[in-house]
Amino acid sequence: MHPWIADRTTTFDASGIRRVFDLAAKLKDPINLSIGQPDFDVPTEVQDAAIEAIRSGKNAYSPTQGIAPLRAALKAEIAAKYPHEDRDVFVSSGTSGGLMLAMMAMVNPGDEVIYLDPYFVMYPALLKMCGGVPVPIDSYPDFQLDPDKIETAITPRTKMILVNSPGNPTGVTATEEQLEAVAKIAAKHNIALLSDEIYSQFCYDGPYASPAKHNDQTIVIDGFSKSHAMTGWRVGYVHGPSEIIATMLKIQQYSFVCSPQPAQWGALRAMEVNLSGHIDDYRQKRDLIAGELADYYEFTRPGGAFYLFAKAPIDSGERFVEQAIEKGLLIIPGKIFSDKDSHFRISFAAPNETLHKGIEVLKQLAKS
Taking the complete model, does pTM exceed 0.90, yes or no? Predict the structure, then answer.
């Protein structure tokens, strides 16, 4: 290793998703069911708002906490859902930026953070950057949020419980009862509760539930990347107790500075856009892929997001993904999101024609 490289960078690897993309680079026209972003474009009115912001000179730094109109709109929406005495909000550089700021603001070296396995790839990497200790909770085979398992894992070093519902990579959505129980456990033990809600708009079988409803100290991270296909715009937001938010802002001043100002004006317009048509489309995509693969693979039917996490028909999810790539199908091995190598992730954020092609390949592989 080069002598200038910091030790902290050796505690985690580069994203395994990138390695899959490298493996598939030679494919001429892959059936791509790997990408974790919507296949629809940013709504036209959101594009127009950002263009207008650029052309009217709104191109400088914004305040670190975000432009005032967007913060005001977010505050009003949040206050209507959670009328807590002490809840502030700021605009982050995407939800990933929000996650990093949350870890930096709250996790000391040696602090333990509990989350489910499978998990979003950033969780253990960000924790290790801070010197934190990941405590993954095995949620196989059904990927449910089990409050008893969470409480059993708590030690004197536990600083935070991190929940993600609907989840990436499983698409499984926690019930309100499960989230309420975890919220009360966090309050009982005086542990931070961080809720990653980036897929909150993508709920197919009922209304969205947040632990913030049951614990007024919950820190919530959300954004516009998935809901409005604005993954490249880097506009997220974080809300929670004002002292936590102020600390995160202090770190943002010296790191991300602010979210891109023109994109924030686009996000302000995005708050007025009706997404029900897209959500209905994605519910149909979920129903299509889950219905077609139910007789071929073991999986828990996703209640949200746009992922299906299926068990490979052989003893290695990674080798199964290699077989799929040989047939032109791009999916992601489950071990990227887990300590286990038994599953693979499908993203159904794709045109229906692509989904049908992918389904046929998956059926062939299951029979072989």
Answer: yes
